Amino acid sequence: MVDYSKWKNIEISDDEDDTHPNIDTPSLFRWRHQARVERMQEQEKQKETLEKQKKTTAEKLKEAKEKLQRNEGNLDALKKSIDELEKEQERMRQEEEEFRKKEKLQPWNVDTISKPGFAKTVINKSAINRKDDDELSDEQREMNMRDFIKKYEKQLKEFGMLRKYDDSKKYLQDNHHLVCEDTPNYLVIWCIELEMQEKHELMAHVAHQCICMQYILDISKQLKVDPRACVASFFQRIQQAEAEYKNQFLGEIEAFKERIRKRAQEKLQKLIEEQEEEERKARLGPGGLDPVEVFESLPEELQKCFETRDIGMLQEAMAKLPPEEARRHLQRCIDSGLWVPDAKSAAAATGEASEEGDEKETAEEGEEDPIYIEVKGKSEGAKTVVEPSEQVEQK
After folding, report:
1. Where is this region: Disordered (predicted)?
2. What pTM was estimated for this model as a whole?
3. Is 318 exposed, middle or buried, given 0-12, 13-18 or 19+ CB atoms closer than 10 A?
4. What does the pLDDT look like over 111-132, one tens digit per residue?
């Protein structure tokens, strides 16, 4: 059962139960209050004096014991002094105990019935900051994010690698500058990079930290407070949350990971297309045609000629085609670089552009080696070999 007896003995200065009609009530109240305040001040002075005497006696006793251990001065006098100080210390302890009992028996009043637990002043500037961010242009926001990442990238990655809720809470409280919109933006970019590198487990972990930060920012927007003030409340709630709230949180993480996978796949596909386009541009012939596309558009017999590098067979195949079609295929081969009309001139131009050491090495090898003009085909590639002694006429 609850003991309510302590509430029976409360001193109230403006209690009118025992006030005589002929006595000035306001004056009586003021006198009672003044007397109580003076009595409390006197008790506080006695308490402070007792504390000072206790501290002084303890210091003297410590000093005397140290001298006795070092054998300094008169040992008998020191022992006698120590005994007296110990007795004095015991006397003050008893006096302090009596003072506490007396203080405990005193009735409560308006000044002693309660004490403030804590005092805190919070100046909320989040609305001003949010307004300033909204007024920034896209270019300025991008520049601010780059500066933020450049300055705090190491701390952002450390936060992304944390696994326990308590560690994440402490890290954000110690590094409160990370509690902003730029942190989840960076973590999203990092997740996409990890997924593109096929580091799926690490991506899933960083995604969890990203959603935690996003939840903190969403709570701050709903409550219209600084997001730094929502860090402790979020981690406390997520650790003690009901099954429904946790399931919603985990579902949000899974949906986010699915979006990351989709975005990573799109970026990979775009990179592949860009690389293929660069390769296509790099292999364009003098006429601006792609040799791979031209090769695939040739009749099957002509394709075999290029694959086997048989010039005689190529001349025969061209002769079998109608003149107009043969000229069209031949011109396309020339424009794509599959066919070089004057191989000797091309080889001579190539030789002039080479270094002197290469020229000497070629001269030593002799003139019997054929001149190779390589053109990449489909997968294995197609090469055209032109012998110095052979001439090709255009049909």
Report:
1. 1-26, 38-74, 342-395
2. 0.46
3. buried
4. 666 666 666 665 555 444 444 5
